[in-house]
Amino acid sequence: MKTMLILAMLAVLAPLACALTITQAEYFVNTDPGAGNGTPIAVTTADTVTISALFVPTGSLGENLSHRVFLRYRSEEGPWSAPLMQRFFLFEPEPALEHQANVNDLQYWFDNQAPVTIDIPDEHHATWSALLPTTGLALNTSHKFTVRYVSNTGELSNPEARYFFIHRDADDGGYGIRRITHLEYFFDNDAPVLIDLADATFESWTALIPAAALTVNRSHKFTVRYLDDRGLWSNPEARYFFLHDDPGSDYEPRIVTHLQYWVDSTAATTLDIADGWNVNFLDSVAHYAAAGTHRFYLRYRDDTGVWGPTEARPFFVWTGVGPRGNARLTAAEWFVNVDPGIGNGMQVLLPQDSAWDELNEDAAFYITGVPTGVHLFGIRFRDELGNWSITLLDTFVVGPVLVIKPQGNNIVLSWIANPDHTPFNVYRSGEVAGTYSNIGSSDSLSYTDVGAVAASPKQFYYVTVNTTAFSTFRLPMASEAPPPKW
Questions:
Q1: What does the DSSP 8-state code read for residue 443?
Q2: pLDDT tens, 259-289?
Q3: pLDDT over 60 (residue 97)
Q4: CA 394 to CA 376: how far, in whole Å?
Q5: How far apart are CA 69 and CA 37, in angstroms?
Q6: Distance between CA 387 and CA 162 in Å, rounded?
Q7: Cys-Cys with 263: which of 29, 178, 287, 482 at CB 3.0–4.6 Å?
Q8: What angle do CA 72, 78, 83 make, to 5 degrees?
């Protein structure tokens, strides 16, 4: 929601030594358009002008950012004064946390296709059911379906995505394990060779295939595919090999002794298997891979210690998350004051239980190096499907660091704080747990308690900071500096 910034009780004083009369006043935000080109403020000609309320439109200003408003006046002599500046922070709450907007439209798309817009009944809560055509999408592979909503104000919701797999249906309309009846293989771009197999749901075919017609001392491609009892061919599988011509040696198959497998870039697992020149490996492999697309790698080692070529297979992990399911959390990020954009915040390395693997996670960490003042804190979470939550926002205050030193018969207090947050109020008590009284204020970063040493053998102090303005401090981007230690 865009608001109007109201600056109350602004006193504009002409320099007393010159005794000038103020005739005009104007203001501008952030960028100076030049003297006389700001937004005029109606004033009554006088030596002193008090503006009880100044309404500044903020509709065109960036949300959740720090801004500056400037005020200057003109005397009857003609010159404009130097601009007076005040900072403010334009806070825009998450719409879902402030009000409920009507949902007017729905947009969906597959993979990277253009969105399709659907006009749905205008309601706060919308339920839409439809059978969506998937004509044109590749068969036997995974796809991504994304949906988002459009409010009555034209704002877009965060997109939500789900992965799905399109399987080519059997002729009978259901999926089942089919019998393999034939095998077909070929080299490079040669004509395929058809082999009639014994009909079975699982086939193991071993043969020495002649390669006399292939060119020696170069690589070749061997391709194989299978035919089921419905007459449908499987996806072709290919292997590359090198045909080496060595007339002085005879080929002898080697014994396979070990295999090694891994997922994506994880550490490899090596297994000692039963020695043989033709081996079959069948096992359930624990991978601990997150939801999404991955690759499985496998290779073998012979009795001379030589590893064979690595074979790779893509696979897809689906956790069962559906339109009415909940996805596990996999990451979180935070920022102070300035939102660097989704995916660019400071990473929460691990939750308190040291693993991102649940629907709800608790995280605790320390933030250091933040100066005194009022700050905005934001945090958001990402689920296993890559969707980011809305950004949760809150404010916090960092108080000044106080240094107390005796100086003669006086006590001098100094502190580190944002000088824009004035005035600083000073409180004193004769006992640490006693009643503290306000003994004064300061517009600078120090205060002198006159005669305090002689007045009492001990004194206790604290200083408060004005919290009417947000700090302009922001944490460095990940590319600028390493994240703080926690």
A1: S
A2: 999 998 888 999 998 898 778 777 777 777 7
A3: no
A4: 6
A5: 14
A6: 9
A7: 287
A8: 15
